[in-house]
Amino acid sequence: MRVTERLLAHREKMTPSERQLVNVLLDEYPMAGLGSITELASAASVSTTTVARMLQKTGFGGYPQFQAAIRSEVKEMISGPVAKRDVWQNDLPEEHILNRYSRQALENQRRTIDEIDPEEFDSFCRLLCDPERRIFVTGGRITGALAQYLYLHLQMIRPDVKLLSDAASWTHDLLEIREGDVLVALDVRRYENTTLLIGQLCHERKAEVVLLTDQWRSPIHRLAKHTFAARIAVPSAWDSMASLLVLLECVIAEMQERLWDSVKERTEELEQAFDRTKLFRKFGQSSGS
Question: Are residues 50 and 193 in the same domain?
Answer without folding.
Answer: no
